[in-house]
Amino acid sequence: MPIRRTRVILTSTRDAPVRVRSFLNELEDVIPFSRRINRGRQGLDAILRKAKFFQASYLVVVGIRKGNPWFFLVYDLYTSSLKYNLRILGVTLRKEILKVEKDSKKVRKGCIGSIEHDIIKKLLLDLGYYSISSCDAYAYGEVIITEDDRKLYQVKFLDNQNNILGPIIRFDYNEGID
């Protein structure tokens, strides 16, 4: 059986709770040519070897805090270096909004609809949102100011009829490395 093309490997830190596994499943649906790998108790070296076996370009590791996604690390597998380190301040899962279990198909072509945050835009380009026509999904972002004056950048994945396709992710606006 041939191995399907994989550009991005998704995993979490060890022993992910249900909410983080659901988040990764929804990310797998909206990131083109991605594959989720169960980490279990494997070390990062074992996950890196698996990612290289699949000839992936990037490894995304979602960190956990109090049962929720907390950070988003992206490793460039060609240079073996950390490319992005973003703090997640909140997520809303698609299944929480629509109250339905998985019924979406995987995105093959993603476009950037409207993203003003440079680091998030570069991240999405690296993760496969670079098509310019006939897209299955569009990524949109907006700045949100919370009640305690915290600045967030919210990213949504929508289809061409503005239906939600994946999780809504709120990143810390001021954090991240290039």
UniProtKB/TrEMBL annotation:
<feature type="domain" description="Brix">
    <location>
        <begin position="6"/>
        <end position="178"/>
    </location>
</feature>
<dbReference type="InterPro" id="IPR023548">
    <property type="entry name" value="Brix_dom_Rbsml_bgen_prot"/>
</dbReference>
<dbReference type="GO" id="GO:0019843">
    <property type="term" value="F:rRNA binding"/>
</dbReference>
<comment type="function">
    <text>Probably involved in the biogenesis of the ribosome.</text>
</comment>
<protein>
    <recommendedName>
        <fullName>Probable Brix domain-containing ribosomal biogenesis protein</fullName>
    </recommendedName>
</protein>
<dbReference type="GO" id="GO:0006364">
    <property type="term" value="P:rRNA processing"/>
</dbReference>
<dbReference type="InterPro" id="IPR007109">
    <property type="entry name" value="Brix"/>
</dbReference>
<keyword id="KW-0690">Ribosome biogenesis</keyword>
